[in-house]
Amino acid sequence: MATRLQNLKKIAALTVALLAISLGLNAQTWYIMGEYIWSPPHPQGTYEMTHYTADDTEINGVTYHTIYVQETSALVGAYRNEDNQVYYCKWNGSSYDEEIMLYDYDLEVGEYFNDESEHPMQVTAVSTIIDHNGMERKRIDFRFIGLDNESEYWIEGVGSNRGFVFMGQYAPDPSGDGDIFHLLCYHIGENLIYTNPEYNTCDVDEIAENLANNNVSIYPNPAKDIVKILNDNNLNITNVEIVDLTGRVVLSTDKTDGIDISELAEGQYFVKIYGESTIVKKLFIAK
Question: I need a labelling partner for 201 at 20 to 30 A (CA). Which of 103, 194, 258, 278 fits?
Fold first, then answer.
């Protein structure tokens, strides 16, 4: 079985590599849904984001693929592949952090990942799935040591079900504050590779709607005094609310341009944009 998996991995890696070359190496896209959760009676909600690869960059003489958030064009980091491992350097706003191993697709049942973390991940099962091109890919299931109700799985060449850059970021206590992310689907160019079986949100209509929502963004972000809502699809926006991390609405306006945030404290907020649908975006205020 192990030999067969190794052979399948080599065939899959070669096929995906050829596909990536034909579509362009910088054409990988991960559609992600986030849930923000506060203690009752504060509101709960969801928002969507898209991570995509762009140009390559060199870090200490090594080539990496850069990753951005489509909604804000914010750089989040850069990764590289080496055999069946993926290495990642997070962007901290001014430079790249030290490289870490993000994935090791050679792991087998009983082995550990992130040994030095507070809650290491242990492999509980290894299986295969069939992607949308009919290729078999290795699936690795994990449990978090010390967190009985937390689990995660990886799809080889795709990443974590929590989202490519959110590997190992287990969900917070349901009674606490925080974000939980879920990978919805993964594309190479226009070619759909994988969809999360727990969510039915990657059909053509849904993706088109997600992309329309992605054309609504906040600029600048991070911001200091003034922000505006960029509405490339000319959606009918009726109201904008800025919500702090306690769930309190700290600003409400029907303006989309020149929104004055100078009186708001530094930190992270959610911007709820009301119209044909409700779109939620993150806003960072930095004084």
Answer: 103
How far apart (Å, rounded) are the C-alpha atoms in residues 60 and 63? 9
Cβ-based neighbour number of residue 110 at 10 Å: 9
163, 186 Cβ separation under 8 angstroms: no
Domains of the chain, with CATH numbers?
2-211 (no CATH), 216-285 (2.60.40.3080)
Q: What is the pLDDT along the chain (287 residues), one digit of tens a residue?
A: 334 334 433 333 333 333 333 333 446 889 888 776 655 555 566 777 889 898 899 999 999 999 998 877 889 999 999 989 999 999 998 999 999 999 999 999 999 999 888 899 999 999 999 888 778 899 999 999 998 888 999 999 999 999 999 999 876 655 555 678 889 889 887 678 888 888 766 644 444 454 445 567 888 988 999 999 988 767 788 999 888 766 678 999 999 999 999 999 988 787 888 877 677 777 888 87
